Amino acid sequence: MFSAIADFHVWYRNRCQAQQFRATKIPLEELDGWAADPDSGNLVHRSGRFFAVEGLDVSRSGREVAAWQQPIIVQPEQGVLGILVKEFDGVPHCLLQLKMEPGNVNGFQLSPTVQATRSNFTGVHGGKRVPYLDYFTAPRGGRTLSDVLQSEQASWFLAKRNRNMIVQVEDDVPVLDDFCWLDHAQISELLREPNLVNMDTRTVLAGLASRRHHGAGAPAGDGFAAALARSWSPGGRALHSTVELLSWFTEAKGRCTLTRRGIPLSKVDGWSWAGGEITHDRGQHFAVIGVDVEASSREVSAWQQPMFEPASQGVVAFLSRRIDGVPHLLVQARIETGALDGVEMAPTVQCQPDNYRLLPDGRRPLFLDEVLGAPPGRVRFDSVHSEEGGRFYHAQNRYLLVEAADDFPLDVPENYAWVTPHQLAGFVRYGSHLNVEARSLLTFLGFHKEDDR
């Protein structure tokens, strides 16, 4: 535990210096253990496990572009993302891990207590056992605060979900070198720093808001659930009831015409394998690259793998406004390429703006200009953070909360709805409702200091 945030930063620097890591891009053809299937061209591991990079054909998307083909990551197994919570002097703390991921822009970020794929925690890689895993596998001790299957980035994963868990314990927990206990105020402070709290931690922390929303008792003291409850207190009447919002969401799913089918990676139109990478012919979206990794602190000290490298930085933003004095967020029922149900609740804007530079203005994502053109006085939150560093190389999004102009309409297109943060936090309790970008942004806003909201 740290008495001051400056003590954490000293610990962070010391632990980074104590570890050795290297992530170097190499040609896909040189990846050890990986090969292109001779029939399909799909990138697969020799064990048949971990994941594969395959082709996907998308049509009738209902998006700005109606049809396209792309590489996509197929990883049907479910991983575990788990955070341990324990009270010290009545104050709950989270046990977080300083973890190296090959795709992190800065190498080391704060991850959950356990962040592991099934292939990893079943020992397919032949490496060391995942620490603290027993707290999150049956039979387990402790008190489960949150446990739900949540989606991953649906633009790059096909129907990928991980088990998001929060478990509170009372017994003594040995703290290994790269782990630390952090309380609500400290996590709130660290979430304000770019590229420090990783995506997996952010999605799990969103489950704390869900827990308090549904009336479960908060731990003693000024803890996580209690603080988030104050953040999401309704404080007035919502524009739409929760039943009405669920009906709106169900109708959006019913309208979805998205059609997708797997195709050989070698047949994906608009993409080329050249120079050791698979790239988009216009240099947009992302590239499939090879990476050679060494890491002294991981279960396996060296490995190679394919990764997705975005061509540009993304924008993830909620527009907000008060309706009869109650804060609301403009939520999108977004058609997602790889989402299990095809549609998930998403932020108002979620895109890589550079991908739309060649399209006419009428085909740019809705409300993108309102977000990027907002004057500084209406920007309530603005920070750049990394996405999942185990599969995505140097993937970053700019996360924003932007207050809408006074004349911004209450009437919005049918795939959008005004939702209170309190209502949105409640939907985290269910899988396939909020996408990972919305959960990340919800965590940023929930842990944001009250004088900044």
TrEMBL record:
Full protein name: NDP-hexose 2,3-dehydratase
Annotated ranges, domain dTDP-4-dehydro-6-deoxy-alpha-D-glucopyranose 2,3-dehydratase: 6-208, 243-445
Molecular functions per Gene Ontology: lyase activity
Pfam families noted in UniProt: Hexose_dehydrat
InterPro entries recorded: EvaA-like, EvaA-like_sf
